[in-house]
Amino acid sequence: MKRNAYTIDHLNATVTVTKSFLKEAGVIGSPAYNEMLRLRRELPQYEISVHEAKKRTSDKPYGNLTYKKMEAYISAKEGKKSSVLEEFEKVQALAKVQRNPFQYVKEWFLNRYENDFVTNRDINTF
After folding, report:
1. Residue 124 DSSP label
2. Where in the chain are the domains?
3. Which end of the chain has the smaller Cβ count within 10 Å, N or C?
């Protein structure tokens, strides 16, 4: 049985258990079963609920962003022979000596165009 298998909230009269503790408590005679019996005996009016894990938000909101997609977006927005495309190529060249080259280019691109995107998926249409 894990140490933090359950938490007791005396203010709301609830005992919150983990899914693994609840599964282990389903085995008669296990330490978790005995602990659950003790909790029910000592706190009969408390409600037992299962801990809900928090949903992770995307760690990479621009995960599908590539050099080609950046270039396609700049071409569509500024034109195929724009000075911004030349600047983009210079930024790519400068990025080669950076610790994380793609991050360097991505930050430049997002600083310049992030306000253009309604959602993060808009860039993936290119």
Report:
1. G
2. 6-50, 67-125
3. N
pTM of full prediction above 0.70: no
Q: What is the CA radius of gyration of the chain?
A: 27
Place of tokens 């359950």: 6
Among candidates 61, 88, 93, 90, which has minimal Cα distance to 72? 88
Q: Please give the biggest Cα pair distance in the chain.
A: 77
Tokens matching residue 18: 């983990």
Q: Two tokens at 49?
A: 């609920």
- Pair type for strands 6-9 and 14-17: antiparallel
In this structure, of 13-22, 24-33, 85-94, 113-122, the range with the lowest mean pLDDT score is: 113-122
pLDDT tens track for 61-107:
677 889 999 999 999 888 888 899 999 999 999 999 999 999 999 99
Tokens representing 116 are 């253009």
